[in-house]
From TrEMBL:
<comment type="similarity">
    <text>Belongs to the FMO family.</text>
</comment>
<protein>
    <recommendedName>
        <fullName>Flavin-containing monooxygenase</fullName>
        <ecNumber>1.-.-.-</ecNumber>
    </recommendedName>
</protein>
<dbReference type="InterPro" id="IPR000960">
    <property type="entry name" value="Flavin_mOase"/>
</dbReference>
<keyword id="KW-0285">Flavoprotein</keyword>
<dbReference type="InterPro" id="IPR050346">
    <property type="entry name" value="FMO-like"/>
</dbReference>
<keyword id="KW-0560">Oxidoreductase</keyword>
<dbReference type="GO" id="GO:0050660">
    <property type="term" value="F:flavin adenine dinucleotide binding"/>
</dbReference>
<dbReference type="GO" id="GO:0004499">
    <property type="term" value="F:N,N-dimethylaniline monooxygenase activity"/>
</dbReference>
<keyword id="KW-0503">Monooxygenase</keyword>
<dbReference type="GO" id="GO:0050661">
    <property type="term" value="F:NADP binding"/>
</dbReference>
<dbReference type="Pfam" id="PF00743">
    <property type="entry name" value="FMO-like"/>
</dbReference>
<keyword id="KW-0521">NADP</keyword>
<dbReference type="InterPro" id="IPR036188">
    <property type="entry name" value="FAD/NAD-bd_sf"/>
</dbReference>
<dbReference type="InterPro" id="IPR020946">
    <property type="entry name" value="Flavin_mOase-like"/>
</dbReference>
<keyword id="KW-0274">FAD</keyword>
Amino acid sequence: MVQTLLKPSPCRRVAVIGAGAGGLVAARELRREGHHVIVYERENQVGGTWLYMPETEADLLGRDPARPVVHSSLYRSLRTNLPREVMGFREYPFVVRADWSIDPRRFPSHTEVLAYLKGFAIEEMVRFDTEVVKVELLKGGGGEEHGGCWRVKSRKTRTTKKDGIDWSGGCEESDEVFDAVVVCNGHNTEPRIAECPGIQRWPGKQIHSHNYRTPEPFKDLVVVLIGYGTSSVDISLEIAPISKEVHLAIRGPSKIAMHDRGHGFSNIWFHPMIKHAQEDGAIVFEDGTSIYADVILHCTGYKYHFPFLDMDGVVRVDDNRVGPLYKHVFPPLLAPCLSFIGLLSKGLPFRVSELQSKWVAGVLSGRISLPSVEEMMEDVDNFYAQLEAAGVPKHHTHVILTSLVEYNDWLADQCGFPGMEEWEKIMLFAAYESLQNRPGTFRDEWKDDDLASKGCEDFVRSIS
Ligand code: FAD
């Protein structure tokens, strides 16, 4: 095992992988700190997840690792599940702005988020149509004498020609050396599939929510959705008016029909998880009840995936835990030269990425110190032990909803940045509660106008 030794310097050559929300804010903070940054982005625009793509993958469950990947998992009707006041970056609030806003709602459509990110991006730092295919540590690690520790290999995904775009790209490769690499490739693209006995031979159609775009293909069908996250709730409510029946297979004791929550759909039912699927088309649930269905829609989340990282076991993905990582960002043995932004699942992705980026940028220049490798390892071990003691499954390592405020404030403190305002905390938790209790209406009915006004006052003060 090798530890990278990097002398503090205010000017590092840093590669950022991905120009989604995480990569864009990382680039901005690294440049602000004085580092020289190149952002690699395999698409031809910034935005990552928020760059809606109507096309889907041919492999609807995403099982084939060699399949051509469609990055975004957005559906056409998607609106944010957070109010804009708490969703945006602290230093570039997601307020309605005359120069780019197209949807002024508090929970706007994905088009507004993309417009916001385009307004935020410093595009000159981004190398578009360029996919990172390999990141490797140069021998010896502490490569001051090599002019950098990391080799980043990339290839052109397509080449722009004078008369438009040539989609036949993919052969132009390049090799560059950097002092540090910041990984921001997102984690909502590689489907996680529910494996139930018999499902391989079940004759119906299976699709992961990554490949759901519009309700029309589900017209008159009996659909089983597995999982009960935001996508599953949104999609079930969207297809219910045209599908024959909608069945949600979920963990936990929630056998409450959705119409009991005031949505008025008599064709939505809740079930426990699937026990097994049969060759005759039946789906049998854990309580012994069964139905015949046409489609199973897996709304079962995503896997962390870093196909370009060759880390010789120093960082691994094990049952969807990326580790070991100090505070979900730095692998102790490779800190600060390798870092991950935006790994947390749920919570406040933009805000947390902003703080993580400030932290990484400050640590790389030596302005902020990290504990010793041993101390970071001990912290990680303690964190894993706490999760285990609390019965949290390994694949939930990066879901820290209950300690989100504490984590956010810890990062802010490291960076000398203000922690979360009181109004933000109240708004955030009210948003989660209404998402749970009023899934069909929370985006259009709320009672916290006073907090929204408070937020706007704060934004005006902080940016004037
Ligand atoms: P991404 O946005 O995924 O960006 C990663 C970028 O890396 C992409 O541009 C990709 O092309 C690029 N990339 C990947 N691999 C490579 C490579 N090898 N080389 C070069 N480039 C590469 N968050 C909210 O705050 N509010 C919401 O309402 C909300 N709703 C969501 C709804 C859905 C359906 C999903 C899937 C997510 C939602 N999120 C929401 C979470 C959302 O993912 C985050 O807000 C945020 O956009 C994540 O940004 P990111 O930069 O970490 O990743």
